[in-house]
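Q: I'm writing up a methods section and want to include an example of the input and output format. Could you take the sequence below and give the corresponding predicted structure tokens, formatted cleanly so I can copy it straight into the document?
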Amino acid sequence: MSVSDTLASPLPSATRDLARAFADLDRHGYAIVEGALSPERVAALRARVIDQARGEDAQGLGFHDGKTNQRIWMLPNKGKIFRDLMLDPLVETAMTRLLGKDFILSSLTANIARPGGVPMYLHSDQGYVDFWTPKPLVANIAWMLDDFTAANGGTRLVPGSHLNPDRIDYALEDTIAAEGPAGAALIFDGRLIHGTGANITADQDRHAVLSYHCRPFVRQQENYYLGLDPALRETERGLFLKRLGFRIWAGLGRTNEPGEKGPLSPLTSPLGPLDPEGRPFPDT
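A: Here is the clean output for your methods example:
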């Protein structure tokens, strides 16, 4: 299937039919799943994002992408509501299909596109890989906490670009806006060319949570081993820690022998140099 073939077929629209959504993903590189979040979850997530953004600004720690847009990083530390979202069945279903059953979370962030913003540069989420891959190494879900429209900065996409093995520079004119109602999930292949759109409304902020996932051998965007609140390692669910990569996979990520079981924790007493009798040996 070529990029031209995808452009010749009807583009995805919001659907509750997962079979259709997965067909859209294969053909166009993205799908819009309507009703992924209930109105109550949308309201709660949106309120938490807004409060966190204001709180970070109040402490002088807010990160602003350009003059108006705001990003919030490391959401696993910033509320159980975000950690719960990562165990949603849609994450399991969609990411397993795209990345295999052992996928892990690469980053969990929020994006507030405010009026007066400019379009983000076009990119693919695995653009750091210097060769095309026949399958995605990463994939993303944008959880829509407002209606996404072309006017309020709905994500700009180049349909079918995930199938193009040639690195070419796409222009904004090559993109379409991903539009859908609040509560929908925009799922997209990590090879797809995209970028945040410009919010040209007078007074409509557009909020989203972005859960970016990767295959288990790919380096994560957020370093949870260093950045996750240590208390969460003791209290969080095993499945959540597994999704953050706190386990050995195919011998990767171990701290000692490859048969260690369960979620990994930092070594408190690492084994150092020993003499032939098993006594500490000076490390000089």
